[in-house]
Q: What sequence folds into this?
């Protein structure tokens, strides 16, 4: 959700040509209008699919793209940017970073902060990029032996946070940690964060974040480091384990993908 626009990706398959295409769809919450922007690629020889994506304030799209070469049977994870017309602006091959660290050999999630900078996460690290795709460093939250990143997202304050599960052999905890782009390190850590089952952190309606754990929905307040239960899924006969919260709107309401 950016401004009054609800964005989502549409996938189309052309049976006759045996080709696929993707478009970014914008649904206006203000007037109900729908607009469609086809995604165009610089490399047309490979099969591309948008994975996790974020939409910037100017309508540009950042996405983890899964690319597959039908001739060599090789696949790539790429960080890509598309402008507001759907034209590809840049692509960064993430293999350069995933192949350096066996504990973080895959791309898990991404987010953009209030300044348009890009954060890409794996198991225990977050790779930092500016809005033009230039690499700015890596932030570690620990080792896979005692911690891993569960979810990541941008808060109401424009900062990016990760929720991390950690254990020391005797006890375990689930905390929220700020990712400091300038310092290339972790910032403040917040306790008592709900153990959500979504890979994306979404802003709350009244408090900083809304979190869903499969049974209940909570809002979490950074200042007091407390969670407030909003409701239980069983009260409305919905299997919460089949729900993936995506965004909140100022209506207020929550949009969920089932």
A:
């Amino acid at each position: 959700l950016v401004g009054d626009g609800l964005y989502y990706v549409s996938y189309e398959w052309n049976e006759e040509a045996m080709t696929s295409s993707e478009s970014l769809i914008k649904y206006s919450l203000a007037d109900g209008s729908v607009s469609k922007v086809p995604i165009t690629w610089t490399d047309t020889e490979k099969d591309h699919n948008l994975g996790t994506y974020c939409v910037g304030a100017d309508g540009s799209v950042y996405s983890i793209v899964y690319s597959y070469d039908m001739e060599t049977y090789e696949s790539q994870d790429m960080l890509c940017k598309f402008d507001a017309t759907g034209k590809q602006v840049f692509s960064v091959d993430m293999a350069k970073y995933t192949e350096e660290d066996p504990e973080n050999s895959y791309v898990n999630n991404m987010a953009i902060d209030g300044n348009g900078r890009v954060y890409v996460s794996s198991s225990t690290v977050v790779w930092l990029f500016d809005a033009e795709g230039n690499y700015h460093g890596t932030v570690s939250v620990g080792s896979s032996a005692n911690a891993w990143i569960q979810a990541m997202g941008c808060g109401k304050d424009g900062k990016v946070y990760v929720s991390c599960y950690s254990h020391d052999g005797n006890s375990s905890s689930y905390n929220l940690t700020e990712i400091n782009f300038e310092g290339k390190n972790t910032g403040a850590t917040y306790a008592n964060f709900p153990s959500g089952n979504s890979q994306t952190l979404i802003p709350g309606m009244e408090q900083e974040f809304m979190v869903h754990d499969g049974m209940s929905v909570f809002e979490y307040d950074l200042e007091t480091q407390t969670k407030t239960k909003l409701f239980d899924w069983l009260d409305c006969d919905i299997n919460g384990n089949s729900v993936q919260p995506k965004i909140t709107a100022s209506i207020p309401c929550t949009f969920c993908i089932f």
Summary: The two ends are 17 Å apart (CA to CA). The chain has a mean pLDDT of 85. The chain has one helix and 21 strands.
